Amino acid sequence: MHDAGSSAPRRGKGRVPPRDSPGGLWFGPATTMDLPSPVTPADLSASPGPADWAPPVLLRRPERQAAPIVFASPHSGAEYPPEFVAASRLDPLALRRSEDSFVDELFSAAPALGAPLIAATFPRVFCDVNREPWELDPAMFEEPLPAWVNTGSPRVGAGLGTIARVVATGEPVYRRKLAFAEAEARIHRCWQPYHDALAGLIAETKARFGCCLLIDCHSMPTHPAQAAAPPDFVLGDAHGTACAPRATRLVEEALIGLGYRVRRNDPYAGGYVTRHYGRPREGVHALQIEVARTLYMDEIRIERRPGFTALQRDLTRLIRHLTSADWSYLR
After folding, report:
1. Residues 6+ apart with CB under 8 A from 228
2. What pLDDT does 317 receive?
3. How is 146-172 classified by DSSP, letter by letter?
């Protein structure tokens, strides 16, 4: 799930200036622009946290990429470091309610159908890659934060910055205040590798096909305001600024054809990933897909429901339709 209807600008208040990148693009190595200084192996070994952290990114590539499409699942990670769980005031099940559980499985057919699939292995509540790297709440930390940290975004105010203060249900995560070095370690070990890998996939795809469509995959709880007629899917293209309307319409029509109720940009218009990477004038388009959790999972127990298999089958049909489409108009 992404925060509803975000309209934050691409450049955060109080952040360090971006490093120079050819043509002003933010792809590839330029994604390190938000870090205050290069990180080295010595820095990582000195950072707080277990030395044997799990690899932060799962990347599944097709034998041959058949279409200019990249699928991403940034919030389905479920590898919870024991030290993090021990420091939380919440039980493991409560922590998991911020996950977009099983979304990577729902879209798992992508590599077999010719499109790469990237997924974070770490949980969103531990480090949220659908945020700027340094959106941090000063009330969470033992010491004053550096001046370049973005402490004033609406997401930080809601407790849902890069390092979340609360889970999706609004309950505080931590028993104690954190050291800023803990946030740095997570950002260097989780946020940065995920975006390096994602940016690399986008750059490779654009170099090969002349364009790229990023499908950023999420799940959403039932929204109280939509209880009477909840959508099955919400497509977020930042109100037409992150993705060509024709591409959004193609996905929308395919889902409607499969029998689903679909809305655009309400209440989820797209998060940091959609707005950061979606640059249609440069041939890179980003579309966020939110899937209703009621279609496939028990939100209390965090378990797959019987509808999971049918939804996965329909999303496989969607992926097949997308990977066989003509995307030349995206260039």
Report:
1. none
2. 98
3. PTTSB--SHHHHTT-SSS-SB-TTS-B
- pLDDT digits 0-9 by tens, 17-66: 232 222 222 233 333 223 333 333 333 333 444 545 679 999 999 999 99
- Tracing tokens 């420091």 back to the chain, one arrives at 87
DSSP codes joined into one string, 202-256:
HHHHHHHHS-EEEEEEEEEPPPGGGSSS--SEEEESTTTTSS-HHHHHHHHHHHH
Q: What is the CA 130 to chain-centroid distance, rounded?
A: 4
Helix (H) or strand (E) holding 201: helix 192-209
Euclidean distance between CA atoms 31 and 195, whole angstroms: 7
Q: What are phi and psi of 291, to 5 degrees?
A: -105, 130
CATH of domain 22-222+229-325: 3.40.630.40
Tokens for 16, please give them.
Answer: 């360090």
The whole-model pTM stands at 0.86
Domain boundaries, the chain: 22-222+229-325
Q: What is the pLDDT of residues 249-259, one digit of tens each?
A: 999 999 999 99
- Separation between Cα atoms, residue 105 and residue 217, nearest integer Å: 11
